[in-house]
Each structure stands twice: as C-alpha cells, then as structure tokens.
What does this fold into?
Amino acid sequence: MTAAVSHVVGIDIGGTKCAAVAGRVEGDAIEILARESFATDAERGVEPILQDVERACEAVLAQSGVPWGLVQGVGVSCGGPLDSRAGRILGPPNLPGWDDVPIVDRLQRTFGVPVALQNDADAGALAEWRLGAGRGLRNMVFLTFGTGMGAGLILDGRLYSGTNSMAGEVGHVRLAEDGPEGFGKRGSFEGFCSGGGIARLAQDLAQDAWKRGEAVGYCPSPDHLGAVTAAATAAAADAGDPLARRVFALSGEKLGYGLAVLMDILNPEAIVIGSIFARRRQWLWEAAEPVLRREALERTRAVCRVVPAQLGEQIGDYASLLVALYRADGGFGRGTNE
It folds into this structure.
C-alpha cells in the first residue's frame, strides 16, 4: 500500500533571522520542497516581521506548487518564553517587543489551516526524535547548546512541556557561584554552555591572562575584547591555542555537571546535543566525560548515550515542520515513535 502524502509549512522565528519552509511528508520521510529566509531586524517591530513571515509562507508554497487547500498544518518554532497551549509568544529576550503575541490565532485566520507553536528546544527535540539521533527512543533529552541553552524533553514517548510550557529551561540552572552570565544569571548552565557564554568565558580568561603578562592568541589586545566570539575561540582552539582550549575545557567541565543532573533526574536513553557541541565535540567531551563519570549515578549513566545532533544546520527547518506534524494529543500517529 502506498503511504499517504501530506504537506505542511514550517516557520522558524529567531532573533537574527526567520525562515519558512514547505515540506512534503510520505510515511516517515520528510522532503523540504522550498525555503525562504530573511533577516529579523527586531527593531522593526512585530507587525512588519509577521507580514514578512506570511509573505515567506506564500512564497514557499508558490515555489513548491502546493495550494493552501492541500496543507495539513503550519508549525511555528520560536525561542521562549511562550505558551504553546494558548499559542502565544511571551517576550523572548532576543525578540524585544514580542511581549504577548497571539501568533497561532493570527496565522490560523490568515491561512485557514491549523497552526501549532513550540519553543525551539521542544521543536528540536521533536526533529531529532523523529528524524535524527533520537529515532526510535522513548526517553531522550535534546540540548540546544547554541545561542542559548535549553532542553526539549521526550518522556515515555511524548513531548513533555510542563504545566505552562516552561519545562526544560535548564539554561537557568546555576552550576557555579560565579561565572559568565547566561539566562540572566551568573554561573548558569547557559552562561558556561552557549555561544554567548563561551564568548564571555573567553573574554574573562583573556583578561586574566593579560594580568599575568601573557599573550592571548584569539584576542591581540583589550581593544579587541568585545569582538571575541565563540566561533573565533573555536578556530583558535583548532589551531592549537592553549588558552582557547582551556575555554572549551571549562565549558566542557560544566557541561559534565549539567549532564549528570539531567541523567539522574530523568533517566533518559540518550542526551542529544546540538549546535556548538555537534561542531566542537572533541574539545568539550574530553573535559565533560570525566565529570559525568564522577557525578552521575552509575546505573543511570550506563543506559544513557550522549551524542551529537544529526540534523546539522537544517534542524531549524525540520523542527518547524515537525511542530506542524505533531498531533495535539501528543504523538505523530502511526510511525517510528508511536
């Protein structure tokens, strides 16, 4: 019997860029038919950006030759906080002015199809669960480890988002009394394990090195301190810079503590980590693994793999499409993860 074909649209809303994708679904296979993206430029305000989102959705369907009458739903992935049940975006820090945006109601009125909303960590968890490193599992954690640090939780074969869509905000957990700031808290998980956190950690170590009279390969002088990024620090680590490697070792140590907490509390089969971990696993895991072995219960650690995300740079596109596919009752229907 031929598998039924369906079509969905995905929207990925971020602080620097937004994207719309059209997808074709047949059985367990998802094909991206067309994609449009544009710079967010959040200072423009909510309405102009939403209008561009709507135009991008129309464009990807036109490019793919799919009429709205054949679209089963639209999925929206956006950084939190948000209320996925009410369909409202509630003031993400990287989207100033988006303080209470009823995006689901608006898009349903505009397009006349069902619309679903999830935060980007939950959406990424759905994508890696259905298509990537978590395929076939019933219990997994997905960690973003990108611009910020958040977790998407798949527990007992269902996405778990908590009482008011705030489950998985692990970036706010404090791992040290002091340290780089992330999620509004110094020494937090996000402060040590995110792009911005790694940049701030690199800046802190550079200042300490200068006080000792040492040169800093990834930052030639204090005048360049504000230009230090996680990417530049990673490039220096790849080139053999010992201080840059120390930055990633410190981040990795704190990652080990965070992973141990997640393993002991949630007892998952896998923790899937995206973005920076997937690209720089060699520098992070060397420091994280000994901490994890020391801190986590042996029986929880024995049944849990820590693996990089598999979907790479396309995870945002697939994540938004998976939000559209994920049923309101908490499942994909017949398929891999039922």
